[in-house]
Amino acid sequence: MNRLDMAARLQNYFNNPIYYTGIDFNDSIQDGLDEVVAFTGCVYNSATIPFQANLTYYNLRSLLPDYLGVIAIFNNVIKRWLYPTSLRKINQDRIDWECVGGTPYYFSAVNHRFVAIYRKPLVSAYGNMFVFYRATAPLLNDQTSIPIPDDHLTALENYSITDLLEQQQEWTKGTERFQAYQQDLESLRVYMRNKRNPDRMMSLR
């Protein structure tokens, strides 16, 4: 389904060309997609990033404009997945871990921007990492396919209906739709979590 199809569904639901324009529908669909994607992680992307000599913390938010959160990292030099871990566990291994050089075997998400690599390469042109990550929603046009599984498109539809009802101060109707939207959002979130975990088994061993 693309944006034009979703707008047609909304037009059919409201059946009132006076209150809403095509711009209203398109803006609401985009806002809804941004929120659904951010809350559920239903859009994946990947990128090749060079390892930097003596660098521990990588600002993935600045390196990847559509970055939301890291899923897995592959060290292409040794052909192995980096093990996801916590900073606490790395600190237990070595208190001075930020200063330790060597082959990268571990990564830890520090916050919504930075990922720490342990150990860090000490030589220039060491090689590349492949980063798999949750991405932000694309900017839609009429023909852009909406990147939500077909069985869960009602999440976006119910968001837009809620949003448009509230614009007209239809608070009671909007609340009912918002509850449906929350249920759809949780269903999609669980679906994506269950779908993602088997893909990460090799990186979690």
Q: Please give the share of residues in helix.
A: 40-55%
Radius of gyration, in Å, reads: 21 Å
Question: Span between N and C termini?
Answer: 37 Å
Segments where pLDDT lies below 50 for 5+ residues?
A: 199-205
Number of domains: 2
What is the molecular shape?
Answer: elongated
Sheet with the most strands? Answer: 4 strands, antiparallel
Give the amount of beta strand, in percent. 15-25%
Number of strands: 8
Query: Helical element count?
Result: 7
Broad structural category:
alpha+beta
Element-level helix/strand string: HHEEHEEEHEEEHHH
On the 0-100 scale, what is the average pLDDT? 93
Question: What's the quick description here?
Answer:
By secondary structure, the chain is an alpha+beta fold. It has 2 domains: 3-41 and 138-199, no CATH class; 44-135, no CATH class.
Notes on the protein architecture:
- The protein is α+β, with helices and mostly antiparallel strands and 205 residues long.
- The chain has two domains: 3-41 and 138-199, no CATH class; 44-135, no CATH class.
- The chain is 43% helix and 20% strand.
- It has helices spanning 3-14, 22-40, 60-63, 87-93, 154-167, 171-199, 201-204, and strands at 44-50, 57-59, 67-75, 80-81, 83-84, 106-109, 114-118, 128-135.
- The strands form two sheets. The chain has a four-stranded antiparallel β-sheet with strand order 1-8-3-4. The protein has a four-stranded mixed β-sheet with strand order 2-7-6-5.
- Helix 1 packs across helix 2, helix 2 crosses helix 5 and helix 5 packs antiparallel against helix 6 (171-199).
- It is elongated, with a radius of gyration of 21 Å.
- 27% of the residues are buried.
